[in-house]
Every structure is written in structure tokens, then in C-alpha cells.
């Protein structure tokens, strides 16, 4: 008997994760029905990962299941939202049961960890492509936006940058790493950890936020453009991991941190008036966000300084963009 679309859905995606009480109708109907808490608003994000664009053919299926959810939850985190539901659209060249088992396991693990539930989607045949739409909830009026940074606000990063870019460079044999360093940065590339709890704690404190998917220069650039401000970044304050600093030069490490992307840390701004509240909030956190600079009044200007001297971005300093001419 042929194994069709509905067999695939029933086998790998129906009732495979923990069930939320606010899901009235989930996978298996023409549409999902959920109930929203009172005085709340819905935050909706979507990301797509395409084979040979976002990942190569030997990327583990479990990692793909994890990452396609993680990149969406990272967007929700940047807006201070609590993850609630996801829908999945997957296009497959063929039914590969081993691949699907691992993919579904990765997807289920991260959904269960962050308390969100798969409630619907679509399956089709064609070149491998994965799309998730994630839905999160925030108290009404509390979503954090890119627009909101003001001159004098402090700029923070939730964690180190450049590891995913280093992992990709190592996979492309552009740099050689020790086995320990390779495992650590490859885990960062394959299994990013969205800063969900931090994002929710920043509601009412951060004036703006964004997740680092395309590199610090590009993503901080989105904040300063949306807010109509500028920024000054002290590069020696940018957090870098031991695998990165031990494997490449300082200049190359900074380039990876600024333009490589795929790190999914949060970049956010905190007004001076709320800095004391923020310091109290993170006082007992095992991983404290790092202040890397300040918002300025020079509209659209991103100034980078290293040991007090101006530092120029490399030519590929705009981060990853689809439909660009850069290869």
C-alpha cells in the first residue's frame, strides 16, 4: 500500500507533542482553533529554510527539526512573546522514514521544551523546504519593537556572536578547529537556543530589540533605521567565545561576529532610567547580557570602535540578504 500525505501526517506529526489546554482543534482538521488569554495580543512570525540555501544535504534531520522552530521562537523572544503554537509546511522530495523520524523528534523536543504545540500545516512533494509559522502571546501593549531606541540608551547582547559563522567556515574547510571547538560551534549552528525567557523579562524594560540572524551589523542596523537613531559599538566589549578567539585572528573573529549571523542571540537597548531595574533583573542570572555600546543621535550611523579607534566593516558588511548579488 502506498504511503501518502495523510499517512505521513498521521505517523509523524499528529498528537506527537505535549498538548496545550488552549488548543481547541489541532492537527487533522481544515484549520486550527485556539483560545487567547484575556487582555493579550498575538505575535505571529514565519521563517523558511530551503535546502542548499540555508542548509546543506548532510545537515542532520534532527537539527533541522530543532532549528526551523528555534529561529521562529527567537523572533518571538525579540518581541517579548511567550511561544504558544506553531504550524509547519514541509516540502519533501520523497518519503524517507528515517529522515522524518529524526526531523519530527527534533521538532517535538524543542516544542515540548518551550511549551508550544504543533497545531497544523501542510505537506507537499518537491525540493526540500521547511516553513514554520509560530504564534506567541504578549500582554496587550507590551510587545517589544525594533522602533523605540532613543539617544543615550545602552546597547546589550545576550551572548557571544560568531560561533555559527565559525562552524560554517570549518565545514567549508576555510579554517581548522580542534575537535572540542568544532563540536561546540557546530552545536551552536545546528541547535541554537532562542532567548525566550530573557525576551519576556525585557517587557517594560527594553526600548527596542531584535534577534541576531543576519549578523550584528545588519540587525543593529535595523534597530537604528526603525528608531531613527545611530549607534556606537565598542568592539572589544562584543562577547566572543573561546573557540572563536583561539581559532582565528581578532580581526577575523570580529568579522564573523558582525556579519556571519545565525547566532540567534538578542540585541536590545535599555534606557538609562531603566538600567537599575535591568541590572537588578540580571543580577543572579548565570549568563548576563553584555553592554557593547550606546545609541546616538546621528541618524542612520553605525560607528564601530576598537580600542578607541574607528574600525571599518569588511566589504561583506551588510549581513546575509536574499536576492543580493553577493555570493
UniProtKB/TrEMBL annotation:
Residues engaged in binding Mg(2+) 5: 214
Positions that bind ATP: 121-122, 146, 213
Domain annotation PurM-like C-terminal: ranges: 150-298
Catalytic activity: thiamine phosphate + ATP = thiamine diphosphate + ADP
Keyword Kinase among record annotations: yes
One of the protein's GO biological processes: thiamine biosynthetic process
Protein residues bound to substrate: 54, 262, 320
Domain PurM-like N-terminal as annotated: residue spans: 28-138
Molecular functions (GO terms): ATP binding; magnesium ion binding; thiamine-phosphate kinase activity
EC number assigned by the record: 2.7.4.16
InterPro entries cross-referenced by the UniProt entry: PurM-like_C_dom, PurM-like_C_sf, PurM-like_N, PurM-like_N_sf, ThiL-like
Binding, Mg(2+) 1: 46-47, 122
Binding residue positions for Mg(2+) 3: 30, 75, 211
Residues annotated as binding Mg(2+) 4: 30, 75
Signal peptide residues on this chain, from the entry's feature table: none
Record-linked Pfam families: AIRS, AIRS_C
NCBIfam families, per database record: thiL
Family: Belongs to the thiamine-monophosphate kinase family.
Protein name (record): Thiamine-monophosphate kinase
Gene name of the record: thiL
Amino acid at each position: 500500500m502506498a504511503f501518502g500525505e495523510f499517512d505521513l501526517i498521521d505517523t509523524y506529526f499528529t498528537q506527537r507533542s505535549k498538548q496545550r489546554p488552549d488548543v481547541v482543534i489541532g492537527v487533522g482538521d481544515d484549520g486550527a482553533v485556539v483560545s487567547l488569554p484575556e487582555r493579550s495580543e498575538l505575535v505571529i512570525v514565519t521563517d523558511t529554510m530551503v535546502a542548499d540555501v540555508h542548509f546543506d544535504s548532510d545537515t542532520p534531520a534532527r537539527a533541522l527539526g530543532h532549528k526551523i522552530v528555534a529561529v521562529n521562537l527567537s523572533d518571538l523572544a525579540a518581541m517579548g512573546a511567550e511561544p504558544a503554537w506553531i504550524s509547519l509546511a514541509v516540502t519533501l522530495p520523497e518519503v524517507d522514514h528515517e529522515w522524518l523520524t529524526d526531523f519530527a523528534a527534533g521538532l517535538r523536543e524543542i516544542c515540548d521544551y518551550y511549551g508550544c504545540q504543533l497545531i497544523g500545516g501542510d505537506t507537499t512533494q518537491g525540493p526540500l523546504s521547511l516553513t514554520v509559522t509560530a504564534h506567541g502571546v504578549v500582554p496587550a501593549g507590551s510587545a517589544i519593537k525594533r522602533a523605540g531606541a532613543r539617544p543615550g540608551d545602552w546597547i546589550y547582547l545576550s551572548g557571544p556572536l560568531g560561533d555559527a559563522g565559525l562552524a560554517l567556515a570549518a565545514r567549508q574547510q576555510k579554517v581548522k578547529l580542534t575537535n572540542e571547538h568544532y563540536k561546540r560551534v557546530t552545536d551552536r549552528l545546528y541547535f541554537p537556543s532562542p532567548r525566550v525567557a530573557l525576551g519576556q523579562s525585557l517587557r517594560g524594560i527594553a526600548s527596542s530589540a531584535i534577534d541576531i540572524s543576519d549578523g550584528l551589523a545588519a540587525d543593529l542596523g535595523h534597530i537604528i533605521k526603525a528608531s531613527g537613531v545611530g549607534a556606537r559599538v565598542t568592539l572589544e566589549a562584543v562577547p566572543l567565545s573561546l573557540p572563536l578567539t583561539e581559532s582565528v585572528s581578532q580581526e577575523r573573529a570580529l568579522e564573523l561576529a558582525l556579519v556571519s549571523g545565525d547566532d540567534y542571540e538578542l540585541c536590545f537597548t535599555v534606557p538609562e532610567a531603566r538600567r537599575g531595574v535591568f541590572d537588578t533583573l540580571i543580577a543572579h542570572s548565570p549568563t548576563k547580557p553584555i553592554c557593547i555600546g550606546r545609541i546616538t543621535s546621528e541618524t542612520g550611523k553605525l560607528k564601530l570602535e576598537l580600542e578607541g579607534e574607528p574600525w571599518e566593516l569588511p566589504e561583506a558588511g551588510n549581513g546575509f540578504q536574499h536576492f543580493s548579488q553577493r555570493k
